[in-house]
């Protein structure tokens, strides 16, 4: 494998530049004797597991403490763990981005927050906590959406760590890092690569992965690994329920709209105890009919609100794995994870690491425009359906434009109500009727990426 060596070269250049800068300086403040002994054991001596090119030195620690800039995305369950792990590992220049405010239900595991903090931005409180608790650490909070920050912002970091619960946000960030890559004559300039360490958890399952954008598998290369939300087949729900969840889904999907217990057009509100109570009672009746046990009020609310319980220990393990990878990349002392680790402690404990492969025609990182095969008589609706339903694209609300007769034409756009209304009739028109031709370029914008994606329309007969 070439890339760890190259990366280590890239960072070593930075270390050298930095050492020149601090020579003759005052040295870091707020240090005490032995403070970094645990880290120095890894950085100032070699061992059987160190990187073959690693040379023990005192400069690695200085680089981590003073120069290395880390961006942490998310200050929730994974984010709190990550921020603590990174700060205590010697990373003192950390920016954290999170758009959420603290809810009382976060307090059991998001341990940087206290009851008094409820309602305040997670990023601000997490940064304050670490800054006051870890001397010398400078965490800069951004109470923002990742989409509100631009290229100049993302470009300033050496490594980005992600503790998000949203696939769309991950894909957007992945697209942003890919857009920062510089190619010269088709060859990637490795100095433009910002490694992305991505952690994710769901209940007792989690994963940690190392992504070198443009070099190793990106988020979209492995999109098929994020299955769409689990829905039970309707026939099971309607006629052959086996699980308590099937009974609750039956009441939610079939009984609620038919019986309209709280009036016509009143939607089921997972936060309204009267609504949940009604669903719970009817689910119990349904379960009794089929001799199914296990329907509880809590499960009812969980199914209706699609709650996946958050498990603090899973977050801790995945965050630790991610922070270790940040440490390995920043110090070049150890070979990074190659490149996808899964973790599961539902029953016993299981981990497995494999090398996710780049997808040759990945819509995000391959730089090859994708072909869309449709008959001229296909309707625009079918194209839209393909973009959202295809497991390798999974777009959310694609906006389509094309150049027709020399003019830029919006074929369909969902996010602005007035344009949606104006372009909706196009959905039932055929591609031919819309004036599109074979080989035509279609530009598609979507929330899953900061860049407009180009597709080539290939007519089938
Ligand atoms: Zn890719």
UniProtKB/TrEMBL annotation:
Residues 1-27 form the signal peptide. GO terms for biological process: protein neddylation. The keyword Ligase applies. Residues 372-460 form the E2 binding domain. Keywords: ATP-binding, Ligase, Nucleotide-binding, Signal, Ubl conjugation pathway. The active site is at 235 (glycyl thioester intermediate). One of its GO terms (molecular function) is ATP binding. Its EC number is 6.2.1.64. It holds the Pfam family E2_bind. It catalyses: ATP + [NEDD8 protein] + [E1 NEDD8-activating enzyme]-L-cysteine = AMP + diphosphate + [E1 NEDD8-activating enzyme]-S-[NEDD8 protein]-yl-L-cysteine. The keyword Transmembrane does not apply. Pathway: Protein modification; protein neddylation. It is an enzyme of class 6 (ligase). InterPro entries: E2-binding (IPR014929), ThiF/MoeB/HesA (IPR045886), ThiF_NAD_FAD-bd (IPR000594), Uba3_N (IPR030468), UBQ-activ_enz_E1_Cys_AS (IPR033127). GO terms for cellular component: cytoplasm; nucleus. Belongs to the ubiquitin-activating E1 family. UBA3 subfamily. This is NEDD8-activating enzyme E1 catalytic subunit. The lineage of its organism: Eukaryota, Metazoa, Chordata, Craniata, Vertebrata.
């Amino acid at each position: 494998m070439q890339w760890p060596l190259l990366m280590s070269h890239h960072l070593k250049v930075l270390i050298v530049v930095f050492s020149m800068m601090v020579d003759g300086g005052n040295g870091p403040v707020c240090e005490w004797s032995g403070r970094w002994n645990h880290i120095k054991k890894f950085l100032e001596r070699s061992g059987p597991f160190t990187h073959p090119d690693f040379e023990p030195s005192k400069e690695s620690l200085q680089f981590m403490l003073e120069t290395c800039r880390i961006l942490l995305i998310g200050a929730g369950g994974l984010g709190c763990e990550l921020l603590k792990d990174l700060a205590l590992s010697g990373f003192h220049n950390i920016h954290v981005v999170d758009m959420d405010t603290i809810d009382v239900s976060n307090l059991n595991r998001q341990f940087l927050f206290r009851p008094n903090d409820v309602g305040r931005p997670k990023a601000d409180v997490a940064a304050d906590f670490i800054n006051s608790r870890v001397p010398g650490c400078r965490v800069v909070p951004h109470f923002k959406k990742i989409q509100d920050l631009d290229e100049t912002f993302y470009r300033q970091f050496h490594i980005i760590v992600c503790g998000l619960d949203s696939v769309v946000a991950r894909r957007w960030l992945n697209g942003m890092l890919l857009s920062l890559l510089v190619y010269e004559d088709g060859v990637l300039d490795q100095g433009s690569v910002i490694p992305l360490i991505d952690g994710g958890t769901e209940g007792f399952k989690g994963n940690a992965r190392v992504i070198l954008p443009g070099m190793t598998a990106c988020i979209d290369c492995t999109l098929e690994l994020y299955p769409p939300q689990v829905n039970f087949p309707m026939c099971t729900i309607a006629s052959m329920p086996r699980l308590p969840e099937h009974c609750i889904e039956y009441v939610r999907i079939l009984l609620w709209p038919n019986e309209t217990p709280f009036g016509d057009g009143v939607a089921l509100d997972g936060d309204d105890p009267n609504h949940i109570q009604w669903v719970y009672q009817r689910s119990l009746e349904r379960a009794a009919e089929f001799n199914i046990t296990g329907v509880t009020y809590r499960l009812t609310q969980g199914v209706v609100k699609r709650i996946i319980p958050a498990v603090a220990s899973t977050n801790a393990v995945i965050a630790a794995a991610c922070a270790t990878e940040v440490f390995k990349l920043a110090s070049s002392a150890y070979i990074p994870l190659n490149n996808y680790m899964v973790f599961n402690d539902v029953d016993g404990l299981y981990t497995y690491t494999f090398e996710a492969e780049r997808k040759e025609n990945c819509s995000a990182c391959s730089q090859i425009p994708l072909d869309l095969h449709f008959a001229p008589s296909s309707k625009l609706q079918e194209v839209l359906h393909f973009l959202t339903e295809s497991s390798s694209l999974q777009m959310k609300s694609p906006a389509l434009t094309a150049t027709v007769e020399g003019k830029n034409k919006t074929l369909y756009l969902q996010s602005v109500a007035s344009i949606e209304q104006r372009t909706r009739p196009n959905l039932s028109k055929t591609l031919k009727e819309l004036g599109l031709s074979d080989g035509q370029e279609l530009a598609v914008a979507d929330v899953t990426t900061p860049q407009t994606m180009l597709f080539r329309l290939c007519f089938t007969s």
